[in-house]
Amino acid sequence: MKYWSKELETIKRPDLEKLQLERLRRTLEQASRSPFYRESFRRESLNPENVRSLEDLAGFPFTSKADLRSAYPDRMLAVDPVEVVRMHSSSGTTGQATVVYHTARDLDRWTDLVTRSLVMAGCTPEDVFQNMMSYGLFTGGLGLHYGAERLGMMVIPAGGGNSHRQIQLLRDFNTTVIHITPSYALHLSDVIKDLDLNTDDFSLRLLIFGAEPYSSTTREKIEKAYGVTACNCYGLSEMNGPGVAFECRQSEGMHIWEDNYIVEIIDPVTEEPVSPGEKGEVVLTTINREAMPLIRYRTRDLAKLYQETDCPCGRNFQRLSRIVGRTDDMLIVRGVNVFPSQVEHVLMSLPEVGTNYQILLGREENLDRMTVRVEIQRRMFHGEMGELRALQRKIQHELKEQILITTEVELMEPGALPPSQGKAKRVIDKRQI
Amino acid sequence: MRGSNIPVLHHSNLFKEFTMPHQISVFLENKPGKLERVTGLMAEGSINIRAITIADSGDFGILKILVDDPKEAYNILTRNGLVVAYREVVAIKINDTPGALLIIAQILQRHGINIDDAYGFVMESGTAAVFVIQVKDPAGASALLKEEGIELLKDDDLYYL
Fold it and tell me: A212 and A184 in contact (C-beta within 8 Å)?
């Protein structure tokens, strides 16, 4: 199997652009049914009917993460709520989450994009697919799950963590493809070695990476440890989740499914398009989604586009490079998005500690480790060990509630951390990716 | 006391009346040189340390000291930015002989007094030792121990042996 939707995947550029324009016009009209875009278009005196070419998209304002937050919970919804069949949510920067809604048709299209991505990566119905991404509000788990099922692979919905069980499943069910974060892949290979097992005895043949940026060195290291090839995948919950762009067997950049997304690369400061092939912020417009269209969404991911659109794989979609950074201070810890301001928000609500803090990121046994340093308040110290331990646990608990990952908490003396004014160095990232 | 989170120090007139020994606790963050800093400040202020104990939780610790001038020690440490607590403890005088501590333990157990922390030191080898206990209600515990005929030490007894 080479293609899933051959006609669309091998569409010629001029035909693609015609399709994009048609879908863009439909999307803009659909978007204007949501309170958010209706007001936005009216404010800017924009009429979707006046869009005559793809270039006209540039006349529409960007949509930012802040817009998404301000539209919480449903001001970007463009369909009757009864048509919505699922929502996904990603963490917000100050406790305010962002929500993306899907109709049954949206899910069907997303699933199809994932299916064709998996076929492009070389998956077949004979494969056994072990999904090691967590299931839930996070799109990484469910996103690939349904596409893998549609392709006809046997899906093992293992979810994240629990290495011994993962290995047991890998062996007992002859898993051939796994979906995993690069850092967990590194960790898992250590566990496999510790158990005196050899990946050569497994049936594994392909790793699909998601949710985390990583270097080409890490990729080579993992490919060597498992003795199989890895495939890179790009997505974000605002754009459905995984399946926005995927690598083909050439392993030279990720094809963006341009029949579903219009991609722009801009200078994050001037907001002007960068020169072709230059690095910039990825801006995406959904053109095949109805519940919640997003127009010119600023992903804050930094990457570049390959200049050539002809690929030996036969697809003419533009290719995106690896994500090389972020325009904001978002951290990715064990595949989970974390903003320093979320940590700040938690600490502000605790009278026992000051608002100065420091986040330390390190890696132990190939797993991310996050430590939060806080200053205790003088007046809450009564010389009791139990009291301080309880405070540590409380902070840990509150952080886990907010950012969904377990952190170490270090208590410091007041004044021990750099003061909050100015550009204090809040994050010390010692991880090597 | 009006509120448990108000350090006793603020009731400065109470200092003279209290005869129970006072313990200074210092929060120590996980950094080298912290003990040196505390002991250095004590030496500078000519304060004599009678007993010292450190509880370590792995990433931070609590240093507890009995000194000859607890009020001054508290002020020096606080002035130098350290996080300090000040509280009453019960100092029990026991014989420096086998089984002496057992008698105290039995009394405490009988009265249901729970020890939050404890440490001991010898005053005079072969003769007298001190068992310091930290309890929720030091005054109550002191009264009970006295009724049982146990000798308790006052601030002065401890510091000017």
Answer: no
